Amino acid sequence: MKNSRLALFAPIASIMILVLGSGFYTTFTSVHLQTQDIANWLVGCVSSAYFSGLVISAFRSQHFIFRVGHIRAFSAFAALIAVTTLVQGLFFSPTLWIVIRFISGYCLAGICVVIESWLMAASTQENRGTVLSVYMVAYYLAQATGQLFIKIPFAYELMGYCMIAICAALSVLPVTMTRFSAPSPENPSILSFRYLFKKAPLGVISCIISGLILGPLYTLVPVYLQENAKPDDEVGWVMLAMILGGTLLQYPIGKMSDKIDRRKVMVGMSFFCVIAFILFIPDIYNIPWLMVLGFVIGASSFIIYPLATSYTIDHVSHNEMVSAISTLLLAYGIGSTLGPLLPSMMMDWMGPNGLCFYLLAVSVGLFLYTLIAVIYKPEKTHEKSHFVSLPRTTPNAMPNPQQVE
């Protein structure tokens, strides 16, 4: 038991160090672009390039991992993140940054594929849920802590990028110095959208909408706050509250969804999203109230993807579960890629509140769709899969631990 816990320390420690920098990376990039007086639609393009890299990496990075192994793949991806981050700090060019953010997204998704498949292989049927819960909490806590880096008064923007590169370089140490062997990778299969949509349309659509919401939350909320004259340190606190909200309430809400119809829980969470985004529109709040709103937004929006995943797993056969989750991850990736584009253009047209109106419209759509599903489509009897909290920052294949034997 002790050896099995030690075997999990290295991958979890490495991802925490890396995410400490990458969590700050996204916010710092958006803030830096805003200081350069760049159009919001161009900020959206840079953000979408990052999520495009995440989506493509869900497929392509696996071949590289299979060829060189987990540890070498992690080292290569981390090295690329460090190099591209420094290049971004040295040269300001929106076109170049689009390419850099695409590479960063590709590498970060590849690293998460490495770590999550490592944890899956190192865990057992009896403790896999616990292992993934520890990973989820570690991931989000590192991401939330990284937001506080925005409070550091860097003399030059380059210093911020250097800190991100240092985190990427240090993240290699735990996985390369561990005395435990990395697992041998396996090649997962992917189900088609059409097939899965016939099985559980609510699950597929909810995953896409989750991406449409979380993509702008990660990348455009810092821009929104800056355009409303909020200082950088307050931006960091609001982002921290949002991520903490998404972390702390995942387990209790998921536990609730194991006992009642998951669709009813999704109706409730989407309703809270609607209320939170309505309250977010007027620029009348001080920092404590903004943090409360950020916490509620994170708690209600971060849970959508795990709920949709668990709901979909309830509707597929046992041998389709891994492939179904891979397809749902791709659906999320598509949503998160498209998500920053429209609200960034709306912000150029309507001002900062364009982001709030976009998020409100999308969450209203999810609320109405899930409500109609509950009222007009009674749930058939299925054996429920137990809810497992999953961090949604990268689209990569992760089987539901309670369902894979």
Q: Quick summary of this structure?
A:
With 405 residues, the protein is mainly α.
Q: Could you walk me through the main structural features you see in this protein, from its secondary elements to its overall organization?
A:
Pfam families: MFS_1 (PF07690). GO terms for molecular function: transmembrane transporter activity. It comes from Candidatus Berkiella cookevillensis. With 405 residues, the chain is an all-alpha fold. α2 packs antiparallel against α3 and α11 packs parallel to α14. The longest helix is centred in the first third of the chain and has 34 residues. The C terminus is likely disordered.
CATH names the topology as Growth Hormone, Chain: A
Mean pLDDT: 80
State the CATH class: Mainly Alpha
Percent of sequence in beta strands? under 5%
Low-confidence stretches: 394-405
> What does the overall shape look like?
globular
Extended strand count? 0
Multimer state: single chain
State the helix count. 18
Helix content: over 70%
Name the helix and strand elements from N-terminus to C-terminus, one letter apiece: HHHHHHHHHHHHHHHHHH
- How many domains? 1
- CA-atom Rg in angstroms: 20 Å
In whole angstroms, how far apart are the ends?
A: 20 Å
**Main pleated-sheet profile:** none
Q: Which secondary-structure class do the elements indicate?
A: mainly alpha
CATH homology superfamily name = MFS general substrate transporter like domains
- What is the correct CATH architecture? Up-down Bundle
Keywords: Membrane, Transmembrane, Transmembrane helix
Organism: Candidatus Berkiella cookevillensis
Protein name: MFS transporter
Pfam family, one: MFS_1
